[in-house]
Structure to design on (515 residues):
């Protein structure tokens, strides 16, 4: 059972705020999980126990309630259901580890502590008198479907967990200098230009073409290309294709007849097709009639358009008729096909194509060499530019960039190293590690920066210094540092506890109940 922890929102730290425990103590484990949990010896688990951690049990009722709260239904994919179940179980196990650890060190919770929390919570105070009201407490317990004994046992466990949590927080003294550096890191902004290191398409195309011609000169390479051609010959042979609109009028004995056509004789279908033909010859809109009269449901949903077809995609009688149509003579007569009577309107056509080996050998050779050529050019260019910017030879740099059609561009907004991603470039880890070496406008980083899928050189346009470190800003930065540091320490301690419990065989899981 998971209680509404808002009731403890006003309890002082000294009173051990109950609601904080699950959120702060277990957050890291909810998302990182126990990927290596050892099920241990399951012989001691009864069918109503999902897991046991030392003397603490997670029963089926509580686990099922937590699963229901995730809105899991019969349509939820099994993989997703299993992942959610594992996530919930991970959180519950971590709670039990803290409770069990409190027991092991002899940490007890007396009745006065429980009473102090309940009486201090505004959730159980009368709005008029501001005094504790037992009726509100009982109403809350009933609302959550618990007995009073279950509620007090749960509350006692949560307080023990909070005490364990408090042990893991260490006071940290932060010198003023650290806060000043943190302020600079978080709040200094850089306006920068970037030039993506990539050869121009024309240059790359010429290099690949030249290398492909050279590649073919080798007899062994030529044989490789001929083998590739033979294995993929079909893609270089294209049958004549026609793109058209189509109206099908089917009847009950035609192939694949459906819908209204099942109530229509062949004679009735022909009469209807002739009516449609007369309307089209009189200037009626083909797409409108295709929507109204078409028994080809696929064509009907596309305003009659059946795309490009050849004799592998349509019956022979229809294809023969389509090949006679042109832009000057776009409408066909009524055609008797196995599927019913068809009328076509010409849109476009593609002639048959048969390419021989000599027609495509250079194209195939380019496929063989393109990746290697591009990689070689990229490496050579990056090496050349790296040497130029390391030597701070700006005039030579601009010459090389111009030769390769590489231009300087501006970021849309100033960069702060707290940003992990720049839309124009990619991941910023390497940029953040080097950005503070730029001091003056025009300074260029002395190395090419890797943004993941892109590599670029970076030049400073201007920078805006961080605001002065006021007491309020200093406190905000201090809180952020302490929060991060504490959570990292907390996560480390919790992981150590988990490994210890696994090693001791103290974590036992009834896997049949969560799969």
């Amino acid at each position: 059972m998971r209680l509404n922890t808002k009731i403890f929102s006003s309890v002082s730290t000294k009173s051990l705020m109950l609601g904080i425990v699950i959120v702060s103590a277990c957050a890291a484990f909810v998302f990182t999980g126990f990927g290596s949990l050892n099920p241990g010896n399951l012989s001691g688990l009864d069918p109503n126990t999902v897991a046991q951690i030392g003397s603490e049990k997670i029963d089926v009722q509580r686990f099922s309630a937590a699963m229901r709260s995730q809105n899991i239904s019969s349509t939820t994919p099994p993989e997703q259901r299993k992942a959610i179940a594992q996530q919930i179980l991970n959180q519950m196990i971590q709670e039990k580890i803290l409770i069990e650890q409190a027991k092991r060190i002899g940490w007890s919770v007396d009745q006065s502590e429980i009473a102090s929390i309940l009486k201090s919570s505004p959730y159980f105070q009368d709005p008029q008198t501001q005094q504790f009201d037992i009726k509100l407490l009982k109403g809350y317990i009933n609302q959550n479907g618990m007995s009073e004994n279950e509620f007090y046992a749960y509350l006692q466990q949560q307080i023990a967990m909070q005490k364990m949590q408090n042990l893991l927080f260490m006071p940290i003294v932060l010198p003023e200098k650290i806060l000043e550096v943190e302020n600079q890191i978080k709040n200094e902004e850089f306006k920068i230009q970037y030039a993506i290191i990539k050869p121009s398409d024309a240059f790359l195309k010429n290099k690949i073409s030249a290398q492909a011609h050279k590649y073919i000169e080798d007899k062994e390479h030529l044989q490789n290309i001929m083998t590739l051609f033979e294995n993929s010959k079909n893609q270089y042979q294209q049958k004549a294709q026609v793109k058209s609109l189509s109206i099908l009028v089917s009847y009950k004995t035609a192939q694949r007849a459906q819908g209204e056509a099942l109530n229509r004789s062949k004679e009735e279908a022909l009469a209807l097709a002739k009516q449609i033909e007369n309307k089209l010859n009189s200037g009626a809109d083909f797409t409108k009639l295709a929507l109204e009269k078409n028994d080809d449901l696929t064509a009907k949903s596309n305003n009659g358009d059946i795309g490009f077809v050849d004799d592998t995609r349509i019956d022979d009688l229809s294809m023969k008729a389509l090949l006679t149509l042109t832009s000057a003579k776009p409408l066909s007569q009524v055609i008797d096909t196995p599927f019913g009577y068809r009328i076509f309107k010409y849109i476009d056509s593609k002639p048959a194509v048969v390419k021989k080996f000599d027609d495509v050998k250079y194209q195939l050779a380019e496929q063989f060499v393109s990746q290697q050529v591009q990689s070689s050019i990229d490496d050579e260019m990056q090496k050349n530019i790296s040497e130029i910017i390391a030597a701070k030879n700006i005039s030579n740099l601009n010459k090389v960039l111009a030769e390769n059609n590489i231009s300087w561009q501006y970021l849309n907004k100033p960069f702060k190293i707290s940003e992990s991603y720049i839309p124009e470039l990619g991941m910023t880890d390497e940029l953040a590690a080097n950005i503070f070496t730029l001091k003056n406008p025009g300074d260029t980083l002395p190395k090419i920066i890797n943004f993941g899928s892109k590599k670029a050189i970076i030049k400073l346009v201007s920078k805006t210094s961080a605001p002065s470190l006021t007491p309020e800003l200093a406190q905000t930065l201090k809180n952020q540092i302490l929060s991060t540091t504490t959570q990292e320490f907390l996560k480390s301690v919790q992981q150590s506890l988990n490994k210890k419990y696994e090693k001791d065989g103290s974590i036992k899981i009834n896997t049949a109940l969560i799969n």
Remarks:
- The longest helix spans residues 357-390.
- The chain is about 50% helix and 15% strand.
- The first strand starts at residue 49 and ends at 53.
